[in-house]
Amino acid sequence: MATRRYDIKSYSGFLQITLLCLFVLYAPLIVVAVYSLNASESIAVWEGFSLRWYADVFTGSESAKFKVAARNSFVIAIIAASVATTIATLAATAMVRGGKFRLRAWSFGLISLPLMVPEIVTAVATLIFFNSIGFERGLLTILLAHIAFCIPFAYLPISARMQSIEDTYEQAAQDLYATKRQAFTKILLPLMLPGIISGYLLAFIISLDDFIITNFVKGAGVETLPTAIFGAVKQGIKPNIMAISTMLLGFSILMVLISYLVSRTDKKP
Amino acid sequence: MSLENPNAIEVREAVKRYGDFTALKTISLSIKDNEFFTLLGPSGCGKTTLLRMIAGFEDVTEGAIYLYDEEIAGLPPHKRPVNTVFQNYALFPHKTVLDNVAFGLQMRGNSKADSRKRAGEMLELVQLSQFAGRKPSQLSGGQQQRVALARALAPQPKVLLLDEPLSALDLKLRKAMQLELKHLQRETGITFIFVTHDQEEALTMSDRIAVMSSGELQQLGDAREIYESPRNMFVADFIGETNLLGVSVDRVEAGQAVCHLGGGHALTCAAVEDVAAGSDVHLSVRPERLFLTPEAESADGMKATVRENIFVGTDITTLVDLADGPQFTIRTSNSERGNKRIFEPGTPVFVNMEHGAARLLVD
User: Fold this and answer.
1) How many Cβ atoms sit within 10 Å of the Cβ of residue A124?
2) What DSSP designation does A38 have?
3) Looking at residues B28-57, what average pLDDT do you find?
4) I want to staple A135 with a disulfide (CB 3.0 to 4.6 A). Which of A61, A130, A157, B14 is the partner?
5) Residues of A in contact with B92 (CB under 8 A)
6) Domain B241-291+301-361 grouped into CATH 2.60.40
């Protein structure tokens, strides 16, 4: 059956709309990145190229604060992503390979609910929860909250990957004398790995980037990078904020790139 | 079940139910040691379910399955010394061809080096040694098929299960693989249980065939038995091509049934059990066992008119209309001798049956 193929590029206005969207999306980021290289004290006046604000992030008056915040952010992101990915992998295995069980649809809803709920609601609820059980706010509350909201983000790529793996592979493994556990570790897990890496990176970025929930559940004086940046901005935007933002942006792009490369090598025979 | 020569597989009154749906209705059959056994039937007949019950992927609702006198129905798949060639091959995509073949050996506790060595020998057997280092996706369908076969045979299972393994191959390759499978079965001496919906494939390869439909065993026998003496309408219709006619039995005498069919044409054929005078039954005659003559050759010759000749290469198919009766399909080989029996459409002819060609079917 020969259906006519419509090339979207032939529609009038395609190029203009595309450029407009790209401009709206990326112009602010480019402005921030460019002005992070400004020599000026001002954030609006260009006075020439300089890396002084990058140096300022590491050595300036606020550098100690940023360093602690950055370390907190990365430690929390690494642990939260690891725990969330492990839980998500197990959840995906149960959901995709568990056959039909009661409340299966409800379980899926429960796992993905945090994606639907406005973040501010989750933030308030988490805060109330910690308060009501008398849990002292600090790094640990941030970590627990991050693990909780990272699970659905890790779950989605993992379960998507798992759904594309036919269960005959595990059956073949068991037919060839592998126990259920061996079939899982030797066959299913390696096949799921690209999904697991994607899920991990996504959870990591989401944790690293989170502001609203973190801001609610963090203890006084405990900062992550986003909350530290927000705190600094309240005292007026200095170019060092642009430098630190650009570094975060670069890091995020790197993560996305790795995630993309992982999924791409997998498709090659 | 004698001790000196146990059956490879014995299925005893096995039933499989999924909730209210019964996939297998009380099946009993024995598969002999070193046999090429085929489960044949249309999709949904329960043949794959039975195979998966032997492999251990489906549990047995009722009944028992014995492997060389040992009850296996309760064992998980990895504890059964049977291996499966899956319909889609299920080769592990992240492992090389060699590691795929070595997998079963390694899981059975052989050392990595030993497993690989024997896997290499298996690849030699299926003539794929040069592809040992490749990933399955870099092989053609036929090659993947042979890797799947090597992988299943490598751990030397007591019984090899094959779930429609040739269905994804093109016709020529399929024909070649049919012969190769048959040879491999003879060489290895392993019992093969082959599942297929292709009756020609079943007839070509099998020592014995179990014809199944709607979860029941319809007939069990060798290729010739199944083809020439179908036990019921389903088997007659499913295996090969046949003329299936409704007939009335006039009388039964001396092992012969005298019948008549529409238009009053009378014919005599061997009686079968349960056939009684006055009953309406069916009659099956293979098209290649009918022939046309310009004049009546015997009292059983039936008057007819040629409607159409269809050239199909090796044969010519002729459709004739019996006077006031049903239509017959007749196949004549496309040879000098056969062509003398071909008549132009519209020619009045007589339809004759070879001796013993008609088979009565009670149900």
Assistant:
1) 14
2) B
3) 93
4) A130
5) 169, 172-173, 187, 191
6) no
